[in-house]
């Protein structure tokens, strides 16, 4: 393999017309016949293959993720090269222990202290009033409601939580943030 990550990144920037971040993927980079390097460009992604080929995706518009782009690339390239298919069982997604209860929780480098779904359901404001945080639509943002209020379920905005980006789970201070590709992430502060 003579292609370097830096040379592949330059090609990805040229193809996507945006600055890119390496998206390390062990299986993609280890397959010297069908693999290559993956790059994340925000709402776009690219794979630059070791053999000179490439594939791009407008991930935000297509609903793809860098991982689904990589999976598709490997299947296509392995078929093209007559190489054996990937293992039937995909590699387990990385996890970290929930910082509140210890339950294995999906891990991202961007949110290394994110809490599990069960702990997220117990999030409350400073006074212990349970909250629900939601994505504010397709163009981003976060909106936070009280789970229950006199005027009905999720009808009252939790202004203090929304302004400060802080909530509490079992008395432990946490932050509420927008996830990179949509949704909401609660992390231990």
Radius of gyration over C-alpha positions, nearest whole angstrom: 20 Å
Beta-strand content bin: 25-35%
**Series of H and E elements:** HEHEEEHHEEHEEHEEE
How would you describe the shape?
elongated
Unreliable residue stretches: none
Residues in helix, %: 10-25%
The termini sit apart by 43 Å
Strands, total number:
11
Largest sheet: 4 strands, antiparallel
- Output the number of helix runs: 6
In round numbers, the mean pLDDT is 85
Looking across the biggest beta sheet, what order are the strands in? Answer: 1-2-3-4
How many structural domains? Answer: 2
Backbone structural class: alpha+beta
Key phrases:
3-stranded antiparallel beta sheet; 189 residues; 4-stranded antiparallel beta sheet; 25% strand; single chain; alpha+beta
Would you mind describing this structure in some detail?
- This protein is of the alpha+beta class and 189 residues long.
- The chain folds into two domains: 77 residues, no CATH class; 94 residues, no CATH class.
- 25% of the residues lie in helices and 25% in strands.
- The protein contains six helices and eleven strands.
- The chain has a four-stranded antiparallel β-sheet with strand order 1-2-3-4, sandwiched between helices. The protein has a three-stranded antiparallel β-sheet with strand order 9-10-11. Strands 5-6 form a two-stranded antiparallel ribbon.
- The N and C termini lie far apart (43 Å).
């Amino acid at each position: 393999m003579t292609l370097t990550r830096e040379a592949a990144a330059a090609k990805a920037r040229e193809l996507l017309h945006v600055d890119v971040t390496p998206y390390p993927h062990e299986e993609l980079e280890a397959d010297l016949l069908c693999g290559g390097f993956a790059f994340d460009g925000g709402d776009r992604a690219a794979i630059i293959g070791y053999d000179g080929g490439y594939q791009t995706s407008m991930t935000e518009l297509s609903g793809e993720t860098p991982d689904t782009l990589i999976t598709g690339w490997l299947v296509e390239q392995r078929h093209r090269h007559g190489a054996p298919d990937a293992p039937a069982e995909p590699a387990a997604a990385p996890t970290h222990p929930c910082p509140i209860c210890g339950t294995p929780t999906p891990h991202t480098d961007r949110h290394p202290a994110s809490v599990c779904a069960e702990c997220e359901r117990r999030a409350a404001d400073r006074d212990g009033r349970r909250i629900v945080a939601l994505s504010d639509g397709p163009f981003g943002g976060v909106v936070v409601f009280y789970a229950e209020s006199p005027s009905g379920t999720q009808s009252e905005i939790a202004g203090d939580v929304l302004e400060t980006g802080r909530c509490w789970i079992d008395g432990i201070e946490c932050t509420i943030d927008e996830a990179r590709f949509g949704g909401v992430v609660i992390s231990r502060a």
